[in-house]
Write a structure and sequence with these properties.
Length: 238
């Protein structure tokens, strides 16, 4: 994570790199958040705008148009370090990540820096802040054989509450239809997550394989009496 360095103790034998939250004084109450902004990769960048103790700061950030994600990541880290921040090498939440989305770059800054926007040749890219950490997992179930609405075969039980995904006829009902039905019930339940479905086989012997990603880690999901398997759990900012 990106952390603001405190003023070092000039009388100490060794200068200590403390984050603002470590010092225990001076109003060190900045919340860790994850900030995300996107801009068109072809644009050049001039400034990274942050606030510090409620005061706006414009940090020089010189990035040429068409720069790679790795180049942008290094430049953002350098700008923050020059402004008195450090990346503490947190393996779960790296301080700065840049993801190439094809024509755009997603810049993700995590820590107690308050990121506001990026000024680029096409305008301004505003950061969106996520400040709550939630444990999320992937849930999966294979070999679902379908059934008729209103029966146990089409009942999906989410955290103790029953829902119905409607009639699922192997060979007729598409994977997308099954995904949409489960997604609707998942949304209603508040469990969170995104549903994807694939099929195995064809005709009347076709079965459905359901995967739910980004769903809360404390969920219990059962379809046709079979429990979904939970895996790949990790903390995520939401």
């Amino acid at each position: 994570m990106i952390r603001k360095l405190s003023v070092p103790d000039q009388n100490a034998d060794n200068f200590l790199k403390l984050t603002a939250g470590d010092t225990g004084c001076c109003g060190d109450t900045v919340t860790d958040c994850q900030y995300t902004a996107s801009y068109t990769q072809a644009n050049s960048v001039t400034l990274l705008n942050i606030t510090e103790d409620g005061v706006a700061r414009a940090l020089p950030l010189v990035i040429s148009g068409g720069a790679t994600a790795a180049t942008v990541q290094a430049a953002v880290v350098a700008a923050l370090v020059a402004a008195g921040y450090e990346d503490d090498d947190n393996e779960v939440f790296p301080g700065v990540q840049v993801i190439d989305q094809g024509t755009t770059l997603d810049v993700i800054i995590t820590g107690n820096v308050v990121a506001v926007s990026i000024t680029h040749s096409g305008g301004t890219a505003t950061f969106d802040a996520d400040c709550t950490v939630e444990n999320q997992c992937t849930y999966s179930l294979t070999g679902y054989a379908g059934g008729t609405t209103g029966s146990a075969d089409t009942t999906i039980r989410i955290n103790g509450v029953n829902y119905d995904i409607g009639t699922v006829t192997p060979g007729t009902t598409t994977a997308n239809d099954v995904a949409a039905a489960i997604q609707a019930d998942l949304n209603t339940s508040g469990a969170g997550g995104t549903v994807a479905v694939t099929t195995t086989g064809s005709g009347g012997s076709q079965t459905y394989n359901v995967t739910i990603t980004g769903s809360k880690s404390n969920n219990t999901i059962v379809l046709d009496g079979v429990y979904f398997t939970r895996s790949a759990c990790a903390p995520v900012y939401v």
